[in-house]
């Protein structure tokens, strides 16, 4: 195959221009250019790098409505959602510009020489973080802007000083090409080497595999399926020089409805839950795919309201026909499971549309069947009814790692919540109260990460300013003269916070 | 085998008491106890945890000279070295006590709610680091105190709030048992659950494999051979839930002699170099195993002085007969390499003693033969003669990842050093000027780490206070009530630094 075409999500039919399929030679060229650009790019000062990130944001906005329309066509997501996502994408680039300027990401540390120390003098030792090297980024189909070509992985890697080679998602090649061209314009406008950003497209897995295996790639950012993330992690580990893979993969995002909250507002919770479940056709990494509660009247009210909301839910166009088929299979498997009761199905929809679905089972059935804990990507959720707190705790302890865990509670539920929290902390990257996990704020304190298989590396986040740490490593400098020290580590440097002899100075 | 005995390094003969060999049931028991202790231990406040670390230090000192004598017997290392190492071990525990008290390790971040933000309000989001879970520690034979049972991995994992299960090094079971008992006394004295520390001993690799494969283990710290580290990393990756392995493995620690420094003091550098090379029978991770310089008179003077110093060097007892045999094979391979010239060999020694050895080759021969770049653990080093700066740079670029890179230089060498630094930064965890890489300061700015294969994870250090980060992961809390928030994230908390809305507050 030498070219491929964009596919309209709504029809499953090819549309728009065709794109040349990149092959091994293109991968090698992009990686060589990235490696070539690395020293120049990482040596840029904070202002240059921050201005570059801001310029990318401006260039993306300057594309105008063509970008939104391309993304609507290719993803089937509605206009307001994509306009919001563009705002998020641009805001994320600007956040990282601010992070780069403030300089805390360098984690500067200075232990001055102690020439008179006994029994041995201490040398002068200074530490900073440096970028890992060229980063391969695999965008996600479900956020064609914010988790794709110029998404969080790209923004945080560029902020760290790493050139980026994006493997564009084949579900939105037009959108990807528009954004890639915007980044390329920003590279040129800022006078940076063109290898700072590379963009490869094609529908095959081989393309991505070749990228991860290229010896010049130093780290990988990925958002997508568990199978995809695990395959990339395996390739990365099998290299002569293994590299880190930050794969955000699979999560069913348990929502715990505590007894007093259920008693007080079971019905309202049921309605609000379905609004979160069906948002964007349920195609969020943080979609609430599992509801846990102790049996009782409050839960009955929740289930009744959620059931009627799901039954009334309109079908929605899914991102790709592959995702739509996988969703239908997942729903079918739950329907066919004798231990699972189908509470409601929304309007079935046609073609690439997916209808919402709600199921119920018992804690003992859930514990006995691992398959019930697997992600069904789309607007399906499973309510698991527990007999008591002990069963709820056992169920939580048996869960795999999650991006989020949600508690709905009242003040009177706090003692129970306090007993659950230590388990939730071990299971999830973010714990939230009285809200819904969909909606991931891009800020400093956000963790969009979590224990395996939510991600391949629980020590990190892919959203928020802490994401920059994924692409850095520490280097220390011992007794280097001021002329040779990186400027930010010299005695006369200022601006970035530093730890001097163990004491933090701002 | 049900028991095994300690072996005297000097004689290779069994000595002292025998030790029961632990098996799979002991691994399971230790891991179950660690998992059981985890929630209690991680919930301890800073003062309790810091006092515990300090108590371990006191208990180690309280063992008195028995500890030094056991370590001397088992490792063959001399008394002053082991007394120094005990000081380092105790100092390291106290450093982490200080780190725990200061609280920066928690990386607290608070993004307060913005209820009036448009188009959507921002929730209250707060982040802290939490410990990963029980950590398996594999001590090193070459530092029976500072990198073993109560070494840097144990100290940093305990500081992070992780219970530790040590797989004691079979080369020093007596030393290990004394230190393990000291830690156990500290656990009891501080009223902590006994599972906070576990100690497993035995001579087989199966014991360590079972430990890494236990599902309750959340991370691994290892110092040792490349083969050993890679084997553990492979096991860790193959688990149902993969876990991070921090293996510090293999480094030849290039020393670059720049032309002006060589001209000014080639002879003195040669003598000082051999002192570093032969220290502790060359059994340091940071031993200078590779010397790089551009040909000329200064280099000739260096080589002449180093050659006569090596020739005059006494043989020294090595840590184990296995290490001694591996060293002899490594030396033999270099001697038998037609492209390598043997400059000098020290006194050959008997039994488990190793003699120093110095070799010379050309850059082109080195570049053509990867085997020359492999670590020979012991007091052997290879001088690689480069024709010019271009050849030196090519050689550096071809090197594998290193723990350290050293520059000997004068002011007039600085322009050349500035051209070399970007390459050295990519290759090594620590760059030092006008010193020797042996001697790793335990401080805040130290990086004892580096790109693969120096370590399995270049993003970390195993020495210094930054080592605590290896055992932590971020969790964020969204809209939790003050009652449920961890105390350090509440509005009224004080002491630890925090990032509030992106602004660092001390």
Automatic annotation (TrEMBL), chains A, B:
The keyword Oxidoreductase applies. The lineage of its organism: Bacteria, Pseudomonadati, Pseudomonadota, Alphaproteobacteria, Sphingomonadales. Keywords: Oxidoreductase. Residues 19-441 form the Aldehyde dehydrogenase domain. SUPFAM superfamilies: ALDH-like. Pfam families: Aldedh. It comes from Novosphingobium olei. GO terms for molecular function: oxidoreductase activity, acting on the aldehyde or oxo group of donors, NAD or NADP as acceptor. This is Aldehyde dehydrogenase (NADP(+)). InterPro entries: Ald_DH/histidinol_DH, Ald_DH_C, Ald_DH_N, Aldehyde_DH_dom, Aldehyde_DH_Superfamily, ALDH_KGSADH.
